[in-house]
Amino acid sequence: MANIVITGANRGIGLELARSYLREDNRVFAACRQPEKAGDLAKLAESSDGQLSIHPLDVTSSEQREAMTAMLGDTAVDILVNNAGVYPHKGLGFGELDEDDWLRGLHVNTVAPMMMTQALLDNILAGDRRLVASVTSKMGSIADNTSGGSYAYRASKSALNSAMRSLAIDLEKRGVTVILLHPGWVRTDMGGEGGLISTEESVSCLRGVLDRAGPGETGSFFDRDGSIIPW
Ligand SMILES: NC(=O)c1ccc[n+]([C@@H]2O[C@H](COP(=O)([O-])OP(=O)(O)OC[C@H]3O[C@@H](n4cnc5c(N)ncnc54)[C@H](OP(=O)(O)O)[C@@H]3O)[C@@H](O)[C@H]2O)c1
């Protein structure tokens, strides 16, 4: 049994990750912005026999991150999944870019996963797996960018990749594995109905990568099938 913290666990990929870890009798700390509106997660908690708890967490709020750390106390965290994310000014092209929306995207997608990891580091160091997995996107790959657009989203995920790569190097000596995961193009609110795969298909693949990840994989940017995506 492992202790797992998942951000943005109320819908989409985060909710499915929570469901997947719960099936194997893990202890899931499911964080979301508005627990009172997280109906699907509440149902999961009800059927979990106390194995899943729901915690209020806007990942951009330092107070709520601190509250999460305080709630965990000295509980070991085996796996932190930084999943919460936004797609700033979707559909808007150059000439329509919105500064505030871009900065909000950077806050959620880039800064918050680092701050979350910093906030939970002692708990992670106390865990057996010592695994930090951040859900990024292939759209953050500069090498793979042949179609342009999506400035704010792409930049936020490229910056996340860069920061997590540094973190992987810095925490290697302390036995922490830091990986980046591309979930595929998934049918969620963010991915839209045109997505190529369901949340179940995505998470089933991601679990394969998560289950195998160890020190030898730290600093890697994985596609859901475990192949490496170029930076
Ligand atoms: N779907 C895809 O095709 C795809 C592809 C590549 C990467 N990704 C990445 O996968 C991750 C999950 O995306 P998804 O497809 O499951 O999207 P989604 O269904 O839109 O879910 C996004 C989740 O992030 C949460 N969130 C947003 N801002 C937050 C904040 N400030 N604090 C806490 N939670 C916040 C949302 O909570 P609320 O309900 O409170 O808004 C929701 O739980 C994201 O990092 C995304 O960039 C998705």
Which labels suit this protein?
231 residues, alpha/beta, Rossmann fold, seven-stranded parallel sheet, 7 strands, 40% helix, globular, binds NADP nicotinamide-adenine-dinucleotide phosphate
What is the element layout, followed by pairings?
Layout: E1 3-6, H1 12-23, E2 27-32, H2 39-46, E3 52-56, H3 62-72, E4 79-82, H4 99-119, H5 121-125, E5 131-135, H6 151-171, E6 177-181, H7 199-212, E7 221-222
Parallel strand pairs: 1-2, 1-4, 2-3, 4-5, 5-6, 6-7
Bound molecules: NADP nicotinamide-adenine-dinucleotide phosphate (NAP).
Architecture overview:
The protein has 231 residues and is an alpha/beta fold. The protein has a single domain (3-222), classed as 3-Layer(aba) Sandwich (Rossmann fold). Helices cover 40% and strands 13% of the residues. It is built from seven helices and seven strands. The protein has helices at residues 12-23, 39-46, 62-72, 99-119, 121-125, 151-171, 199-212, and strands at residues 3-6, 27-32, 52-56, 79-82, 131-135, 177-181, 221-222. A seven-stranded parallel beta sheet has the order 3-2-1-4-5-6-7, sandwiched between helices. Helix 1 crosses helix 7 and helix 4 packs parallel to helix 6 (151-171). The radius of gyration is 17 Å and the shape is globular. The chain starts with a strand and ends in a 9-residue tail after the last strand. Bound molecules: NADP nicotinamide-adenine-dinucleotide phosphate. NADP nicotinamide-adenine-dinucleotide phosphate (NAP) binds at residues 7-8, 10-14, 32-34, 57-60, 83-86, 108, 135, 137, 182-183, 185-186, 188-191, 195.
